[in-house]
C-alpha cells in the first residue's frame, strides 16, 4: 500500500468512527422536529389531536425500526465482525498447513488453480482465505464474505452484518419517506395559512430528502446484489470472473473451473434472499437472528448452486443437491 493509500485509508477509518454519531444525531433531531414542532407545537395547539398522535406514534415506530438493525450492525462489528485470524509471522502458502483440514473436509472450495488445489492465500494476514473472504485494506484484515467498508456504519460489512445493513437501509428509507411527506404537507399548509415558514421546518424537509435519496440509491444497488447472491466486490468483475473449485475429497479431489461470469453461489432469487435475510419471512423484517449463511457445513463455506452440481457431474463425481 502506498503512502497516499495509507493516508486515505486512515481518513476513511476516522470518518467511520464519527459518522455513526452524526447519523444517530441527525435522525434524532429530525424525529424531534416531527414530534416537538409539527405534532406538539402546531397540531396539538390547534386541537388536531388525531393527526398529532398519529405522527408521534409512526415517528417513534419508524425511529426504532431503523435504529435496531443499525444498533445490531454497530454491536456486531464490535463483537463478531467476521475477521480471519492472522497466521504465524513466518507462514507462507508453501509451508503453512494450519487450518487446511477445514477446507479439505468440505465437498468443494475455491482453490488457486488446477495444479494447486490449495485455497487462496492472504499474504498480509498470512492465512488461508475461506470462500468469498476478501482482504479489507481499511482494516488491514481479511473479512468473511466482505461486501464493502462502509463509513455510514463505521466498519466493514461482511457475512455477520449484511442482513442488518439491508434492513437498516429499508427502514431508514421508509422513515425518510414518512418524514418528507409529513413535513411537506404541513409546511405547505402553514405557508398557505400564515405565509411564513420557520427555518426548522425547512430543515425538516431537507434532511429526509437528502438521506432518503441516498438510502434509495443504496437499496437500488444492493437489492439486485441480494437477489443474485453477489457481494459488492463480486459484482465488480462479475462478467469475466472465473473460479477454480476443488471438488471432492482426498485422492478423488479434482479442480474444475467455471465459465466466465458464472456465480457458483447463485441458488435463485428467493433462496439467495433467504441465505442472507433468514429462512422465515418474519426474520426478513426483524433484526434478531443472524443470517443462515453463517451456518457452515461439510458441503461448502456457503451453499453452492447448480453450477457446482454441473461441475461435479462433469468431474464424474456424484451430483449433490445444495443443503439448506
Ligand atoms: Zn488478509
From TrEMBL:
- Provide the catalytic activity annotation: L-cysteinyl-[protein] + hexadecanoyl-CoA = S-hexadecanoyl-L-cysteinyl-[protein] + CoA
Cellular component, GO annotation: endoplasmic reticulum; Golgi apparatus; membrane
A Gene Ontology molecular function term for this protein is: protein-cysteine S-palmitoyltransferase activity
Keyword field contains Transferase: yes
Query: Which superkingdom is the protein from?
Result: Eukaryota
Q: What is the main EC category here?
A: transferase
Query: What keywords sit in the KW lines?
Result: Acyltransferase, Lipoprotein, Membrane, Palmitate, Transferase, Transmembrane, Transmembrane helix
The EC number(s) given in the record are 2.3.1.225
Q: Where in this chain does the record put each Palmitoyltransferase DHHC domain?
A: 121-238
| GO BP | protein targeting to membrane
- PROSITE patterns per UniProt: DHHC
- Indicate the transmembrane segments per the record: 12-32, 52-71, 168-188, 200-220
The UniProt entry lists membrane topology as: Multi-pass membrane protein
Q: What is its main location?
A: membrane
Compartments, as annotated in UniProt: Membrane
- Spell out the Pfam families in the cross-references: DHHC
Q: Which InterPro entries match?
A: Palmitoyltrfase_DHHC, PFA4/ZDH16/20/ERF2-like
Family assignment from sequence similarity? Belongs to the DHHC palmitoyltransferase family. PFA5 subfamily.
Q: What is known of its domains?
A: The DHHC domain is required for palmitoyltransferase activity.
Stated name of the protein: Palmitoyltransferase
Q: Which organism is it from?
A: Pseudovirgaria hyperparasitica
Query: According to the entry, what is the taxonomic lineage of the organism?
Result: Eukaryota, Fungi, Dikarya, Ascomycota, Pezizomycotina
